[in-house]
């Protein structure tokens, strides 16, 4: 078994910090890599050593796999942790890391390759009798043939890019009349986004829930599941609120989904931390969707309810150690909720909002966790995903976790940019969420952007008060008879809504 003494984290921001903290607890030295835009980022300061990779664009910095491996050789690094995004699911990079004599803290390149293709993944898991959404078993490009298969499956259907993700290369087709146009669009988008035009067809689940299972597997073949995460609150097919456990999953369903997830892992000889995603219909029947061969953004909610540090487990598995616990040792402890704090304007179709964190104060208290990678005064760069932080609460039950999250959101002070915090507060206090009766169409069905315009937030009120003081101070200092400037009646945030 190899003992890891130094880890390079091939990532940035909050996930880099989160990995480095666990490494430090384990007595492992860390190396940060960064772009010129991230020179002053907390993950750079926290690491034992740091190396600049290049200009801000990820193609000239965080995606330079060969350069990252060269840095490892220069600094005597034992292992690379890829975090999520960037190179984390790049099979070629994982292969090069191994070829360089380094440890890749993740699964084998072969597992990444199989699960990186939705079609290959479906074919691999079919022999384990895992429920699959009805659809084609291979890529399809012949439009008349595809149209015939769609008619057999029954509309509505979903055309999906085999190499897709994040909602790209995916088209819903309601009827035969729009099939040809939507298929051409899906093929074109798949090619431009992933360099792979392969698409396939699935039955479209009309009221879907997105529920995923966290698994851990060691290199000795032991695999366990650490329960489920509910990830159905999404915008643009991307998650924004997650919780564990799900409000609708019974113990029997949890066991069935967990065992199915273990089967998926066995289908590709998986080791490390991974997530098996399922789509669940209105009858609570579940179907295999895909497997993410990396640590998930939402992994903290699983850590909170299981008591397991998933990064620690990843490192131990990478060293060749067997899992120190079995399935029967795992128990659910309470309930956890996570909201992603994005620099986005929910009132403007969740478009990214860049600027400077003029005020940045984190909420505190028992059962509150903030995973972030920014400090007050920092600018939000335009080059990367706009997530600022993940806010997580943990309590004895779901109601208490929601109540704690509402308080935490109220205590989270961010001035200078728009964020998703107020949307998240709206969502978790909505009747549909509280009752557990919701699906991935929550935003479409319930969210009216004007609800966030109906009252000023605390940060807006503070700004308005400061503006009022400034205005009256200026007026009183002016000479009698001089014209008076009109006060600024709205905050900068409010003006951007016009």
Description:
The chain has an eight-stranded antiparallel β-sheet, sandwiched between helices. It has helices spanning 13-25, 42-46, 65-75, 91-99, 109-116, 118-125, 143-153, 179-194, 251-267, 299-306, 310-318, 398-411, 421-428, 431-435, 442-446, 458-477, 492-496; strands at 6-9, 29-35, 49-54, 79-81, 103-104, 157-161, 170-173, 199-203, 209-217, 223-235, 238-244, 272-280, 286-292, 335-342, 344-345, 351-352, 359-361, 368-372, 387-395, 413-415. The longest helix has 20 residues, at 458-477. With 498 residues, it is an alpha+beta fold. Strand 12 and strand 13 form a beta hairpin. It is globular.
Query: For the largest beta sheet, what order do the strands appear in spatially?
Result: 13-12-9-10-11-14-19-18
Instruction: Tell me the β content.
Output: 15-25%
Low-confidence stretches: 478-498
User: Number of DSSP strands?
Assistant: 20
Write a concise synopsis of the structure shown.
The protein has 498 residues and is α+β, with helices and mostly antiparallel strands. Helix content is 35%, strand content 23%.
Helix-strand layout with pairing:
Elements: E1 6-9, H1 13-25, E2 29-35, H2 42-46, E3 49-54, H3 65-75, E4 79-81, H4 91-99, E5 103-104, H5 109-116, H6 118-125, H7 143-153, E6 157-161, E7 170-173, H8 179-194, E8 199-203, E9 209-217, E10 223-235, E11 238-244, H9 251-267, E12 272-280, E13 286-292, H10 299-306, H11 310-318, E14 335-342, E15 344-345, E16 351-352, E17 359-361, E18 368-372, E19 387-395, H12 398-411, E20 413-415, H13 421-428, H14 431-435, H15 442-446, H16 458-477, H17 492-496
Parallel strand pairs: 1-2, 1-4, 2-3, 4-5
Antiparallel strand pairs: 6-7, 6-8, 9-10, 9-12, 10-11, 11-14, 12-13, 14-19, 15-16, 17-20, 18-19
Helix pairs in contact: 4-5, 12-13
